[in-house]
Specification:
The complex is a heterodimer of chains A (about 1000) and B (about 500).
Chain A (H helix, E strand, L loop, with lengths): L1 H13 L1 H19 L4 E8 L10 E4 L5 E3 L5 E5 L6 E5 L6 E4 L8 E3 L9 E4 L2 E4 L7 E5 L11 H5 L6 E5 L8 E5 L11 E4 L2 E3 L10 E7 L2 H4 L10 E6 L5 E16 L8 H14 L6 H4 L8 H5 L3 E13 L3 E13 L6 E15 L2 E15 L11 H7 L28 H7 L1 E19 L3 E20 L2 E3 L3 E3 L2 E25 L2 E26 L10 E25 L3 E12 L8 E11 L5 H4 L5 E15 L10 E3 L4 E3 L4 E3 L3 E2 L10 E14 L4 E13 L2 E3 L13 E3 L2 E17 L2 E18 L7 E2 L11 E3 L7 E5 L1 E4 L3 H6 L1 E2 L2 E2 L9 E3 L13 E3 L7 E11 L2 E11 L2 E4 L1 H5 L44 E3 L2 E12 L2 H4 L6 E15 L18 E2 L6 E11 L1
Parallel strand pairs in A: 1-7, 13-16, 52-56
Antiparallel strand pairs in A: 1-4, 2-3, 2-5, 5-6, 8-9, 10-15, 11-12, 13-14, 15-16, 17-18, 17-57, 18-19, 19-20, 20-21, 21-22, 22-23, 23-26, 24-25, 26-27, 27-28, 28-29, 29-30, 30-31, 31-36, 32-35, 33-34, 36-37, 37-40, 38-39, 40-41, 41-50, 42-43, 43-44, 44-49, 45-48, 46-47, 50-51, 51-54, 52-53, 54-55, ...
Helix pairs in contact in A: 1-2, 8-9
Chain B lengths: L1 H8 L12 E2 L7 H16 L9 H9 L4 E3 L4 H7 L8 H23 L8 H26 L22 H16 L17 H14 L3 H12 L2 H4 L21 E5 L2 E4 L12 E2 L3 H5 L10 E3 L1 H7 L11 H6 E2 L6 E2 L2 E2 H5 L5 E2 L19 E5 H14 L3 H14 L12 H16 L5 H8 L2 H8 L18 H6 L10
Antiparallel strand pairs in B: 2-6, 3-11, 4-5, 7-10, 8-9
Classes of the chains: A mainly beta (about 1000), B mainly alpha (about 500).
Amino acid sequence: MKTMKNVNQILRIKSFLMSRLTLSLFILISCVSLQAQNTVKGSVIDQKTSQTIIGASVLVKGTTNSTMTDADGNYVLNVSDPNAILVFSYIGYLKVEEAVNSRKILNVILKEENNTLDEVVIIGYGTIKKSDMTGAVAGLKASQLDSQSNTNLGSAIQGKIAGVTVESAGGAPGSGTKIQIRGAGSLNNNNPLILVDDIAVASMNNLNPNDIESIQVLKDASAAAIYGSRAANGVILITTKSGKKGDMKVSFDSSFGYASVAKKLDLLNQEEWAKVSTAAYTAAGKQPLDIALNPEVTGINWQNEIYRTAPIKNYSLGLSGGSDNVKYNMSLSYFNQEGVIKETNYDRVNLRVKSEYKKGIFKIGETVMLTKEKRKDLPGVPGQGSNVVGSAISMIPGFAIYDENAVGGYGGASGSVTDIFNPVAALNLFDVKNDYYQALINTFAEASFFDGFKYKLNVGATISEHKAYTYTPRYEVGGFFKNLKNTLAEGSDMNQYYQIENTLNYSKTFGKHSVNLLVGHTVYENKFRSISGSVSGLPDGIFVLAGAEDPSIVGLASESKLLSFLGRAIYSYDNKYIVTATFRRDGSSRFSPENKWGNFPSISAAWGIGREDFFTKLDLPISELKLRASYGVLGNQEIGDYQYLGLISPGISYAMGEPNSLWIGNIQQEYPAIGLKWESTATANVGIDLSMWNGQLDLTADYFQKNTTDLLLRVPIPLSVGSSNDPYTNAGEVSNKGFELGLTYNKKVGEVNFSVTSNISSIKNRVEDLSTGSQILAGSSGSFHGAAVTYSKVGYPIYSFFLVKTDGLFRTQEEVDAHNLNGNPIQPRAQVGDIRYVDLNGDGQIDGADRQYRGSAFPDFEYGLRLQADWKGIDVTIAGQGTQGNMIYNGNNTDLATVRSNINYSSATLDSYTFNPNSNFPRLDIDDLNDNGADYSDRFLENGSYFRIKTIQVGYTIPNSLTQKLAIDRCRLYVAGDNLHTFTKYTGYNPDVSSTGLGGRGIDYKSYPLSKTITFGIQLNF
Amino acid sequence: MGGLVTLSSCSDNLEFGNPNKLTTESFWQTPADLESGLATVYNTLVDNNNAGYWEIQAMQLKENRTENFIARNDVPGRFAVATYKNSPSTAETTGMFKAMYIGIFRANQVINYAPQIKNIDEAKRAQLVAEASFLRGLNYFNLVNEFGSVPIFTDLVKDQSDYFKEKSTEEEVWSQVIADFELAATSPLPEIYPAALKGRVTKNTAIAYLGKAYLYRKEWAKAEEQFAKLVNNEGTNGFGLLDDYAQLFDGKHENSKESVFEIQFSRVGGATIWGGEPSQRTRATTMAQECAPGEVGGWFELLPTKTLLNALTKEKTVDGDFDPRATTTLAWNYPGSRYYNADFATKFGANAIWIRKNQNWWNNDEGEWKSELNEYAMRYADVLLMLAEAQTMQGKVASAIPLVKRIRDRAKLSSIVMTGWSQTQMMDEIMHQRNVEFAREGIHWYDLRRWGTLEKVIKGSLREGYNNYSAKYNYFPIPESELNNNPKMTQNANW
């Protein structure tokens, strides 16, 4: 048999397809030749994947007579006793015993062992049995990512891990997600540390979800402590697929789908718009607008003009295999997505090679990932539309799209209306391209020596290059926009990240004692350099930075470094009592010399109560029960470089002389951060892991308190100091308290296997302290030119909504008159049908000083649910997720639902007080003297709770017996839908989009809507 | 293995200098360093990212609350100021406050680092310090005019506790203004600059502003003394009025003999209008584009009122024409009125009124939005009328007559007999002349306030928002963010 296998392997290398035939032939021959004896043969199949299992053990019970399944998962065994019992086993799978009962062919299906507590989990700088884990860790396996319909990895984990919040960063093709672990602890950076095969990456957006073997999330200080200063926001460990011992396996996945905007806003058509606009002008005693009386066209639906149903294509090819000493896994994938907004698109090529070589005590290996991304982005748009989405919803329907006589050929807004840029013109005129290239290379060499020692050197680099290109041709668009010269701006930047890690590990078991010790030293270095330039007045048809007017060039560079010493000790007695202590000392170039170093310790313990004699004697259906507790301190240094230095800013100039020439100036603009030190986060965590009915039910629950102190914060200093930016200071404290629950239930009923995975988490976020007591940090605005609507204030969640409360409409003149302070009207220009505001500070007038807490973008809880079932070859997956209790500031309505600028409006205006005296929508008046449209009003705040059916996938695996004839091990066809439906009362495009920055969370202003996707695909394994 | 460990720890240097910028230690060495520092103080007057006092935002706030103009209603903060609904949180007034203190911080750097500059001619050092002192004084002048009582910084902050300063009284701020102007007015600064240095502060600029400060303080004799220094020396200092009022705003007579302090705008520097690095930004202004009518792609943010048109057309020239100041300041439907190369009534409507002053109205439109037209911070006509006022207020009405006559004559108005006028009669004439002479130039509001006629004029104009007006809007409130972040700060009395 062994010889046969070797021959077989050689043949495989020669020709993959040929080998399939050869192998079958060999098996046939061997079977025939062994027929005479009492042989039993068959194959061992994985219940989940329907693939055969290589190297499964087959044993005649009570004897030493055994064999292993071959490269195709087949076995042949001499069995003398026709009533013998065969025991089939494989690591990680439940044993199956089958009586031969005189059968000659005996196929068995092995089922994955669900006792997840015995899994090996990856922790920083090593692995550990899950039963030895003392910290809060959660993970996902490849099969749980639903990568067939989730083309972005962030989206693939959304709603699947308790305590991990994933928000869409917008629906633009290739745009990623924002991830937060256990709330927002910091006011400057809440991004978790993401490591791919042990090397840090800036984002997981450019990974191919098909490449991922597992994702581990280290949530508490104990689990993350080994990563020290970079881990305060949690750590996401991504492991890509590795080769497994055995013949080369080939997989090919292909899918094709369509995306469309999940929802469009309900806006006015030209006739309705003219009615609303004219009513508002009439109310103010003004003549109607010309465009209301004489539209250029009967009416354009500008949303329809920019959105489309767009195709998505995805191809992925994988090879993997290995022997005792060499293992390899490679993949090549191509992903292409047209944007649901016309003219935008994204495409990505990923090439990944991961291999491992063993010789004696040495092991070396590497991961190499090359990524190329190309996007055609939405252009920035001049005027008050802000961007293409904003322009499309703001554009008056009566203006024409095209104008043959204009330079560039597009029409647009003109006359006494708001300057909105024709969005169709923007998409076609402006050419905005961004290309990203990334090489991630991580190598390691490992030596195992003496008894239990392992030294590992890891050297890695991530080199990322970005090229930006924006071309603006000459154009005239409507009455407001004119560009007389072709202009081109190009930029290029490169980021180089290097890491060197030395670790020494000692792991040994003495009887019931087991120890695992780790010491290490690491260096991380980051170098950034950019250059960008622009010219104008290019001749038509020239698209390079050459020979034109107004040349301008800017460059930037920065460098930072982090040095660390780390140590960890894990001690376990009898698998029942486990203690872990971790220490990390980090030195950062970002702080002034006296504050460079920070120490980050943690300690944790666990008690495997389920393994105690007294507990097992109770004979409960509990297979594992463990209690955990941890405490630790982590740091944060994400403030950008050089903040402690007083710097001179160049190029702050003035025109001087007749004729004018440039007088170049240099000056210190900001005061430096004086005495800046590390921000630190202390987390206490208690948790319980429970497994019942042999792993049918798994439960993990955690409660934590996370306190961030010495917040690195640009604390506003008085304006009178004259610093153009506020310096960083260590000021204030933020707390996050939360509860997380994860539940998994697996069951087989008849021939149906099903599993339910669910999680729920709840976090209370609170600003405990901010520098001087009265300090209020303004967050982001949700309107054009508007004031901030989110503020951080002691006693409230970070960046909560502080708005002036509305108190319905004035329904009668008596109500208007009654709204006074000592006889003076509080809203002197209010009329019946206007909004009544609450004068919080009682000063007899309504202004920003009457703002009060009106809610937060943080939900009361968020949850996810995933159901999976299979029956024979059919499998079904349904995943959903949602939030409850969060608020959204619908910034679009500050434009669309306030008839005070001359743009298109929301359909809700048709039901305003002007047309319907029972309405809650205020009266229309273009002068809006009562400020019904004030951006500080809570009328724009909406409930953002939602539940989304995120994924539905139905697959069919063609029976093995059929596909084998085509030399295919497995063939699965599927149809998948993503973002199919969102249940929400929120009236904007979609409830989980927010503008950039922490202060912008929960603000929806002109963001790219999410799309829903239907995908058809095929997965082939050879 | 030991070798491998060292491989990673050999570079344990954690000190990096910033490759992009110099530090405060390495800068401030040479005369060129000091002079380039001074350029940034001028920059704050025009920086549109920092609400410079002669850039669009502040320019509009100076005028949009007078009876002469109103703001477009869709930029909420500007409209709030225009309709007396602004509050301490209004971003536009906050920006103005901040911009003035940025200017002060920069001026203080020049003044405080000047003594350590090596190899510099002592007269040059004194000149640069005088120039920076004048600009610091100008910022305090603007602060006390807009916000009343504010904190005074004359040193650089050394420690975090220095960030927090309580308000000085208005009297103290005025003393600082006068001290800074006086230093420059008595410094070795030249009286006239060669062409290449036009636009910078001269000794005469400082004298004129010192007079203006005294005038605002109603210290008439001291004001007269300063203005007289200029008016009595026209032979040497070269000051005078241009013959034709329209020349002042035709873009061809910049930095003329009528220019006392002129804010420079030019298409030098970068190409960017907003955003980007400072070096990428153009030194031109978008003021003309933002004030232009929608018909030519403008944003019509500052809209002239009928009240202004009435004031400008109140008196005709000797030839029976419109006062050239009317047709230079505004465009409306009068016979032969052309605006942006079109017949006014046809293109803009028979009832429209638009700004002509400092608009590039002789072009088809505002082109690429980068206007090069300078703003006058102070014209010599202003000096003449301020001198006339200082004299009239001391009862020397007769001395004021030739000064007022010069203004009227240039406007081709008839020679009226002023001899024997009472103080009130002369002041009425000066008030009217100042209104029509300087409309849109950003000084009318402050004139009305110091004359005590603000309430009467605003309420009487029936302009939009007039009934919101009360005396508290005479000054802007101390910004909310200053109050929130400075525990020693208190709000102004009326607020």
